[in-house]
Amino acid sequence: MQILLISGISGSGKSVALNVVEDAGFYCVDNLPPSLLAELITTLTREGIPSAAIAIDTRSAHQLNNLPDAILKLRTEGHDVKVLFLTASTESLVARFSETRRSHPLSHRLGLDKEPGDRLSLTECIQEEREILSDIQLIAQVIDTSDLSANKLRAWVKDVIEIGHTPLTLMFESFAFKIGVPLDADFVFDVRMLPNPHYDPLLRPLTGRDEPVIAYLKEQPMVQEMFDDISQLISKWLPAFKRDNRSYLTVAIGCTGGQHRSVYMVEKLAALFKEQEQVLVRHRRLP
Q1: Averaged over 187-209, what is the pLDDT?
Q2: Least confident interval from 10-19, 28-37, 100-109, 178-187
Q3: Which of 26, 88, 90, 177 could be joined to 53 by an S-S link, Cβ 3.0–4.6 Å?
Q4: Given a cut of 90, is residue 178 above it in pLDDT?
């Protein structure tokens, strides 16, 4: 069975992700206690259901310690199990809770034995939730939704569920330093020192995917030197990540605006590594 476990920080978009996979034909369950996971999969397998998406989060916090072992057992039984973890910056989460006027799920569970004046604030609840879910985040494909539209999040979730069963998925992601470093990055490379097409009026409206920008950057020796250094480092250490049983590795490349240099570098790296690895490409600042 194809199994997608969805977890993450409250307010980061888990409901959007669950709706996407439901539309893709997955049997979906929200807020399943981890102790019931094996029983549910056994039942669904017996009924011939080929794919299921299950949301597990801090609403079942007291059972989360057992989740990594449950995932390992399912994989041992031959199931294709992926784990998707959604997160966002604290500032983004606070804004979202303010817009919806909903309380954080942990504010009730952690405040039952406290006086009203001693209960945790929203930011304290978010930090507590990050700590509770930290072990799950380590084994998951992470998506930072801080600056993502709902449509872009839907597209990225579709990419995740379409990935075949592979030992490791290599993610190349471009971003803008002026927005901030994405929380889902394992490696971060800064290419702001490279020549910037932004200062050419003809290239400014284009992106690192457009041929005039590609031709401009190809002519710059520093760009090729930086590409060689990054690609050699990834090639050197990728086997170590595989030996560590990592399922996902995200390499984030940043420039000032996330439009030209970082996009070009991501596309070039993806083209190199896709011949030997399962590769996904993300551009945070492009439509």
Answers
A1: 98
A2: 100-109
A3: 26
A4: yes
